[in-house]
Structures are given as structure tokens and as C-alpha cells.
Specification:
300 residues; Rossmann fold; alpha/beta; 5-stranded parallel beta sheet; two-stranded antiparallel sheet; 9 helices; single chain
Length: 300
């Protein structure tokens, strides 16, 4: 999620890591299947992947597609899904730093401009995956404000929930109609398409975190973890309300968060130990996300 100082989102902790380093952004879960009537296509026709950096997966593998500034990898979950289901056509237009506005408008990156992602969705499209929303909540603007030398701190939570207003919850609520409009537009542009909204994986562990490896206080870890869960709930609710499936990547990725051992984690920490950018899924994480999506794809 993070922007080109990053790539696709997760919560303040993601952007905090990106700010520090100057970088850019399974066990099967309880994913909700999309409507399965004969009026939708599925994995046999044209598959279009939309999303941010959690979809494009910067640096997990060989670079794929243009513009280079979108940081797509050839082993991100859309490419893995495509290799598995073998659609007649496959187009991945995901881009690091994308927001919902990047679906209908161009997105400038540090190395080229990505066309409006929805331009790739045509009347012949039969499958669309969508991984978006985290950047809309505005985590990037809060980048440098959650790191701390106090392991039990909660300065970000206290500031962001002052006066009885939870800013992250309010921004998530404000993003919901944008997701709704996006899904409705996809249905209009591709009336035969199966749509799958892809949620964000588990980034933070249960408990207090792993300070100082992750320099975020325990109170803020809990707040950010809950805020991410709220974002995923919103995405799931919008998928259900707008005739789309929901790929729950958070449930299968529990126990594989950034505080786990390097051979266990599916999301990298501030200093990656495998190919990925900080605080984003590595190749194992993208593979797990792909498997969750594949379980929902309609095939003959």
C-alpha cells in the first residue's frame, strides 16, 4: 500500500518503516465466495488485477510490466493466480502507491505514469481481483509519528483518538463509498465478470509487538492492529453488499506476521530478510494470498 516513498498499505506501522528507511509501500481462511450464478464468468476468460503495492509486490521477484515505477513483480499473487487458472488473457495493472482514485484516473510514479486501472476492465473481462483501500485511509501522512523509544507507548493512538474521534476509523468509513462505487463501476464495465475483493494480510501480531525490532509501542501496536482489522471488515462488508467475493488473507496469515522468525514470516519487517520491501508481503506471503484467491475463482 505504501507510496513510492512506497507501494499497497499497511497501517501506520507500514509507512513508519518506509519513512525510516526511505523506501517506497495457509491454512485457508473464512473467505466469502462471490455470487456463483451462470451470469458471471470466472477464470477462463480475461483476468484483470487491480490494486496497490500489496498486489504489485515490489521486489519479491523479477520486474513485470510498465511503468517501472509501479514496482510489479512477476511472482505477485495475480501472476500466481493466472499461472494456476490459466485464463485466456491476463492483465495486471496494479501499482505501488495506488488509491481508489487511481482506478479512474492516471497515477504518476517516480518512473512513469500508470493509466487508470479501470481502463483494463472491458466488456469481455470475466474475472477481476481488487486489492485497494489502505492508502485512501491516509496512513502515509502519519508516517513518522508512531516510532518511539518507549516500548509501552501509545502516542499515536492517543493523538488519533483525541476528543472522542478515531481518525483512522473515520477515514476507513469515508473510504467505504469509494470501494462501493468502484465495485459498481466494475459491474457496469464488465457485467459478466466475477469480482473478488482481496483483503490485507496480518501484519502485526497479537500481543505487544516486538519492540525494538519494530519500534512501535505496545499501545500503538494494538491500535494499529485493530484499525487494520476494521479496514478489512469494511472491505468484506462492501464486497458482500456489491455482489463480489472477499478473499480473507488476514486469517491464514496469522502466525506469519512481521514479528515471527525469518523463515516463518509472510510480511517482512523494517529490515527485510528476504526479497521484498519493508513491511510488505514477501514471496511466501504472495503465494498464500494467491491460494486464498484461487479458492474463490469460478472454473468449469
Amino acid at each position: 500500500m505504501a507510496k513510492k516513498s512506497g507501494g499497497g498499505c499497511l497501517v501506520l506501522v507500514i509507512v513508519a518503516g518506509l519513512a525510516i528507511f526511505g523506501y517506497y509501500q495457509w491454512q485457508k481462511g473464512s473467505s466469502a465466495a462471490p455470487p456463483s450464478g451462470d451470469d458471471t464468468g470466472g477464470g477462463t476468460g480475461r483476468y484483470v488485477a487491480l490494486g496497490d503495492s500489496y498486489t504489485s509486490a515490489p521486489r519479491t521477484g523479477a520486474a513485470a510490466g510498465t511503468p517501472p515505477g509501479c514496482d510489479r513483480s512477476a511472482n505477485n499473487y495475480p501472476h500466481l493466480v493466472s499461472a494456476s487458472i490459466k485464463p485466456a488473457e491476463f492483465v495486471d495493472v496494479s501499482c505501488s502507491g495506488a488509491v481508489t482514485a487511481s482506478m479512474t484516473g492516471t497515477q504518476k510514479t517516480a518512473n512513469g505514469t500508470n493509466p487508470a486501472q479501470l481502463d483494463a476492465v472491458t466488456k469481455t473481462t470475466t474475472l477481476v481481483t481488487v486489492g485497494i483501500g489502505g492508502n485512501d485511509v491516509g496512513f502515509i501522512a502519519l508516517a513518522q509519528q508512531c516510532t518511539t523509544v518507549h516500548p509501552n507507548g501509545a502516542a499515536c493512538r492517543d493523538r488519533l483518538t483525541a476528543d472522542g474521534h478515531d481518525q483512522l476509523a473515520e477515514r476507513t468509513a469515508a473510504t467505504a463509498p469509494k470501494i462501493a462505487a468502484l465495485l459498481d463501476t466494475i459491474h457496469t464495465k464488465a457485467p459478466k465478470a466475477q469480482i473478488i475483493v482481496v483483503g490485507y494480510p496480518t501484519v502485526l501480531p497479537d500481543g505487544d509487538g516486538c519492540w525494538p525490532a519494530l519500534p512501535v509501542g505496545s499501545g500503538d501496536v494494538a491500535y494499529l492492529r485493530d484499525s487494520l482489522a476494521n479496514l478489512n471488515t469494511m472491505l468484506s462488508d462492501q464486497a458482500k453488499a456489491h455482489k463480489a467475493g472477499y478473499a480473507d488473507t488476514a486469517t491464514p496469515s496469522k502466525g506469519h506476521d512481521l514479528c515471527t522468525a525469518s523463515d516463518t514470516r509472510w510480511t517482512e519487517g523494517i529490515v527485510p530478510t528476504s526479497h521484498a520491501i519493508p513491511l510488505h508481503p514477501n514471496a511466501k506471503g504472495e503465494q498464500a494470498m494467491a491460494e486464498t484467491v484461487e479458492n474463490l475463482v469460478k472454473t468449469p
